[in-house]
Amino acid sequence: MSEIAVVILNWNTRHQLEVFLPNIIRHTQDTGIEIVVADNGSHDDSVVFMKKHYPGVRLIEFDKNHGFTGGYNKALSQIDARYYMLLNSDVEVTKDWLAPLKKCLDNHPEAAACMPKMKSYHQKDCFEYAGAAGGFIDRLGYPFCRGRILDTLEKDEGQYELPTDIFWATGACMLLRADLFHSQGGFDDDFFAHMEEIDLCWRLKNDGHTIRCVPQSTVYHVGGGTLPNDNPFKLYLNYRNNLFLLYKNLPDNKLFRVLALRALLDVASSLIFLLKGKPAGFGAVFRAYHHFLKSLPVLKKKRKGLPRNIRDYPSGVYQKSILMSYFLEKKNRFYQLRFQAKK
């Protein structure tokens, strides 16, 4: 068994492996650490590249793209390690990046997972969209981060240097306990991609575990490499998976009210797409709700796994609407929110 398995899920990103893998290997030299590249059915020359240039790196090959969820579930079922480091292929790691993260899980047995401070590869003084300095959600399920509220990114000026409990850790760079990953059934395959890490973290928190951010570790993320933000398929996944997320994890006394409010907001969002001349965006929202409603029988079965003693949100949920705070109160920095995570 390895102490840590650094697992990179690759899909048609040979160019990113060429740029970032050497740095990962250089800064991951400790004994007990295994680097694994799991190829998710790439149709570029990723596999040929790995076999030619990195024959010493373990390569797992799949015959097709199983998505982020299925790809990692299948890969991690074949890897024996105490901790899994899930790492995107477009992440630049830094010297000693793993040590503070491992120390966090070693010293905090209640913590199921942790993440580093994530900054932008192209604007290295700014936080990066996909995780920044730790992920949170509001009471309606909208995700945001320390360092990133909606589309506003903050400069890193040392304002988030304290390790802290968060709500979710980014799947782009997350260290988690292997036994807890498997006891939770891994990622939900029905998500395919996007928000699956929030779902996993919410399930872990509902079971009494914590998630942490460790800013003493820093990585730089390119981001947006697989699907651009305005891609209709990505929009569809984000709307649909957010509904999956809420239905599976909300406490009983909040489920109907939250879903009703989200439906109103999502209808408004779809109409804005039409007004902006983006019918594909409108269609993405419609398809998301259609698929959500078709999936209700399956979601009801999954919801039966929710602990029955859950009566409220777990820690890390902003008790107001982040949309109201951002657009009406003009609060576009995390520290402006009247919201404190546990230290």
CATH superfamily heading of the domain at 1-89: Spore Coat Polysaccharide Biosynthesis Protein SpsA, Chain A
In DSSP terms, counting alpha (H) and pi (I) runs of 4 or more, how many helices? 11
Helix content: 25-40%
Q: What's the number of extended β-strand segments?
A: 14
Name the structural class.
alpha/beta
What is the mean predicted local confidence, pLDDT? Answer: 95
CATH topology of the domain at 1-89: Spore Coat Polysaccharide Biosynthesis Protein SpsA, Chain A
- Envelope shape: globular
CATH structural class of the domain at 1-89? Alpha Beta
The N- to C-terminal Cα distance equals 33 Å
CATH architecture of the domain at 1-89: Alpha-Beta Complex
Our Rg estimate from Cα atoms comes to 19 Å
Largest sheet: 9 strands, mixed
Low-confidence stretches: none
Residue fraction in strands = 15-25%
Order of helices and strands: EHEHEHEEHEEEEEEEHHEHHHHEH
